[in-house]
Specification:
Layout: H1 2-60, H2 65-79, H3 83-103, H4 108-112, H5 114-149, H6 153-159
Helix pairs in contact: 1-2, 1-5, 2-3
Length: 182
């Protein structure tokens, strides 16, 4: 009789462990999707701001078409594609936006224009939100991968095909230390 109770208790513990571990993996997988959606929201916000910025700059810098065309082209690439392609397009937009803000140095009227300043502030805020969303995504993916690869949850993850998620990374060009000269 005691042996039967012990066997039933072990089976119940194994079932409870399986349920809790499986639900934990599902929870992390959903958090990853939510974190990615937050990145998408911020990228869309930036996507919507770019035409206003480009039009404001166009009024002042009519012969800087190449820079403006790069921004518009990168913006259109951001809408379509896989998450990785969208991140690559996002990196291109970051570079193009840097060129626009550098361009404003050549046009003092543009630099002082209130519309340009408002757009610049909005884009800076959006960039900060994108950076925060990326950090949240990477933190969630790291937590999920740790849980997925830790014993004994890794056994369940393998049985139910929970795959490893990839972290977002920055382009090599952004890893260089900026050169500040006076």
């Amino acid at each position: 009789m005691v042996a039967t109770i012990i066997i039933i208790a072990i089976v119940v513990i194994i079932i409870l462990f399986t349920i809790v571990s499986y639900n934990g993996l599902v929870k992390y997988r959903n958090w990853i999707q939510e974190a990615w959606s937050q990145i998408d929201v911020q990228l869309k916000r930036r996507h919507d701001l770019i035409p206003n910025l480009v039009n404001t700059v166009k009024g002042y810098a009519k012969h800087e078409k190449e820079t403006l065309e790069k921004v518009v082209q990168a913006r259109s690439q951001l809408v379509n594609g896989t998450p990785q392609e969208r991140i690559e397009a996002d990196n291109q937009i970051q570079g193009a936006l840097k060129s626009i803000f550098a361009l404003s140095e050549s046009y003092p009227d543009l630099k002082a224009n209130q519309n340009f300043l408002n757009l610049q502030e909005e884009l800076t805020t959006t960039e900060n939100k994108v950076a925060y969303s990326r950090q949240l995504y990477n933190k969630t993916v790291a937590d999920y991968n740790i849980k997925r690869e830790s014993f004994p949850t890794n056994i369940l993850a393998g049985m139910f095909n929970f795959r490893r998620e990839e972290l977002l990374s920055i382009p090599e060009a952004d890893r260089e230390v900026p050169n500040v000269t006076f």
